[in-house]
Amino acid sequence: MKIHHIAIICSDYEVSKKFYTDVLGLHIIREVYREERQSYKLDLAIGDHYVIELFSFPDPPNRPSRPEACGLRHLAFSVDNVNEKRNELIEKGLVCEEIRIDEFTGKEFFFTQDPDQLPLEFYEM
C-alpha cells in the first residue's frame, strides 16, 4: 500500500535529532527513552506523514555505506524546488553535491548526507 516508516540508528542521538528536526525540518511526533535498552526512540513526520523512527543505542556497530555496499543505498525526499532546497541546506552548513538530471525522467536531484554519512537525496517533483 505504502511505506509506513524508515528506522535509522544514529551514533549521536542529540546531533541526529537536531539534524532531522532543525536542518531538515521534520516534526517530532513522540520521543521516548527506553531505560531497559538505554535507547531513545524519536518518531518524526513530514507534515502529518509519519516517516522516520530515529533510534539511539549504546555503541552501535558501523555499517559500510560506500562504495555501493549491500543494504539501504539512500533515502530520497520529494521537494518542490531542488535549487531552493540545496541552497537552504548549504546555508545550514551541509555539503551538497551538484544538481544532476535523472536521465529517465528529466527531473533534477542532488545528494547530501546525515551526521552518520547516510546518503540523502532530494528529488524535484
Features:
38% strand; alpha/beta; 4-stranded mixed sheet; 125 residues; 2,3-Dihydroxybiphenyl 1,2-Dioxygenase, domain 1; 2 helices; metal ion binding; 8 strands; 2 domains
Write the layout of secondary structure elements.
Layout: E1 6-10, H1 13-23, E2 27-34, E3 39-46, E4 49-56, E5 75-79, H2 82-91, E6 100-101, E7 108-113, E8 119-124
CATH class group of the largest domain: Alpha Beta
Tell me the count of domains.
2
Give the biggest beta sheet: 4 strands, mixed
Structural class: alpha/beta
CATH superfamily of the largest domain: 2,3-Dihydroxybiphenyl 1,2-Dioxygenase, domain 1
Protein name: Glyoxylase I family protein
Keywords: Metal-binding
InterPro entries: Fosfomycin_Res_Enzymes (IPR051332), Glyas_Bleomycin-R_OHBP_Dase (IPR029068), Glyas_Fos-R_dOase_dom (IPR004360), VOC_core (IPR037523), YwkD-like_dom (IPR037478)
GO molecular function: metal ion binding
Characterise the protein shown here.
- It is a single chain.
- The strands form two sheets. Strands 1-4-3-2 form a four-stranded mixed sheet, covered by helices on one side. It has a four-stranded mixed sheet with strand order 5-8-7-6, with helices on one face.
- The protein is globular, with a radius of gyration of 15 Å.
- The chain has helices at 13-23, 82-91, and strands spanning 6-10, 27-34, 39-46, 49-56, 75-79, 100-101, 108-113, 119-124.
- By secondary structure, the chain is of the alpha/beta class.
- The model has no long low-confidence stretch (mean pLDDT 92).
- The relative contact order is 0.20.
- It contains two helices and eight strands; from the N terminus they run E-H-E-E-E-E-H-E-E-E.
